[in-house]
Amino acid sequence: xxxPPDLARTTLIRPFSNRPTIFNNTHRLIPSCFRQLNLLPNWxxxxxxxxxxxxxxFSISVVETNxxxxxxxxxxGLNPNPLVIERIHNGEETIGESxxxxxxxxxxxxxxEETLVRExxxxxxxxxxxxxxxxxxxxxxxxxxxxxxxxxxxxxxNYDQVFIRDFVPSALAFLLKGEGEIVRNFLLHTLQLQSWxxxxxxxxxxxxxxPASFKVRTVALDENTTExxxxxxxxxxxxxxxxxVDSGLWWIILLRAYGKxxxxxxxxxxxxxxxxxxxxxxxCLADGFDMFPTLLVTDGSCMIDRRMxxxxxxxxxQSLFYSALxxxxxxxxxxxxxxxxxxxxxxxxxxxxxxxREYYWVDIRKINEIYRYKTEEYSxxxxxxxxxxxxxxxxWLMDWIPEQGGYLLGNLQPAHMxxxxxxxxxxxSVVSSLSTPKQxxxxxxxxxxxxxxxxxxxxxxxxxxxxxxxxxxIITGSDPKxxxxxxxxxxxxPTLLWQFTLACMKMGRxxxxxxALALAEKRLMADRWPEYYDTRSGKFIGKQSRLYQTxxxxxxxxxxxxxxxxEMASKLFWxxxxxxxxxxxxxxxxxxxxxxxxxxxKTQILVR
Length: 608
Ligand code: GLC
Description:
Number of helices: 24
Bound molecules: alpha-D-glucopyranose
Function: Invertase that cleaves sucrose into glucose and fructose.
Helix content: 25-40%
GO molecular function, one term: endo-alpha-N-acetylgalactosaminidase activity
Family: Belongs to the glycosyl hydrolase 100 family.
GO biological process, one term: sucrose catabolic process
Keywords: Carbohydrate metabolism, Glycosidase, Hydrolase
């Protein structure tokens, strides 16, 4: 397949096309030779040398050098003073950790010295054991973690695969513990899987799509030889055949986190990695028919990967999209070939934040405004721009909305507002500053006011409230897994804890996260780390819940580590970007017809 010159990959993918490792026409497999390219030969670390790796030629030249030369570290991405976390032992037992170092290399060299000693609880010790057992190896190197390792599960379906979204909390736990190798390998191997071939029947998904998951398979080359290959799933095997829109966004978010937490910025600077970012961004920013700056997607294209009535412009995708745009803006090297893309990213960031802040926000005042909306307004300056009929306000909301606090809607379409509260999307809006500082505060106020509904016995409800009766029948298609107050339909997912923790820490309210974490810690180990909980208050282990679910374990560990390392946590969230607020694409238009609603709304909405 021909790629535009600026998107052409390095020769990393060439040997792949030369090697017939595809065993059927719907699977694209990455042969084991790839791992060699990105690994540092053992002899290099034995003797200090400078190394220059030419990806284009596959050649590695090694030159002896004096030890003060930083070229070596910069080229191969070694951190000369990495974050060191030592386990503290008392005889056989690990009783705590000591953290020190944390030097950033690359262009910016910073130092952070921090030492803390913390005792690990029994739950944490068990969680680390489970997480380490979940590690998947490819040609001997760690490349990810399986979704679940439930010994009682006779039908693991695809839970024995490495899911891109599920790996994020595992990756953060490893990074916060000072282990970068598995994350680096994951990022590079999934990059090799990025879609560039037909995968679903005779139709190709857009270039740049990242798989939902992958599996390491052993295939026979001949009678005597086997080879390990990576087998991705872009949705062609997944239930519902939905392309995972969030995978590429998570990949970009994790790439930034890897740089921030290890100081190894050389990874994001590599040509193939830069190309990967561009492919994802080009796919997300491609022109279509849509009138909104939000990303238009099908139902089930994110963590909620079954039909739940979230097609259109669901908040989860919008907040991950916004975060990925911000990450890309930070990581893309600006040059002639990326100028246009960077401009498009800036414009989209600005338009997207305006749209979400202005139209997705609801609090008691806004609901009252919608309640009194006039409809069928035909003009560019209509108040009720999306023609929302007030009868759409669900009765539960009128009683539920607290005096203090508010949240971002689940979805917005012409004549349709999805008033359900979606947890992940609201948390990522806080973390990425998609919402205003005041809105961020209000989101946490709402969680506090509605603690029993959103947290209850087990943090955290994936959404609130559940779809019931005819809504359940029509919207989920009578899905027996998504019955009211179960699974995606308002089940409680402990993995969401780490994102709640990050949002609370950003807003200076770690005590809220600690309270939720304490609840989880009381039950998770005893309940064998379930994937999700059921019922209104999250009292029961989910009907079809897997046990020993990796992202439950990893989410718990990541929350613990974030709370113990506020300085590291702060590298993972964003503050308000005032420069973005000043960019208004409408201002560039010469057309007198266009009336910019943003100018009028700016003072009240953008920074209020
Ligand atoms: C379920 C979840 C999805 C997760 C997968 C693996 O399909 O809905 O979000 O990635 O399980 O854990």
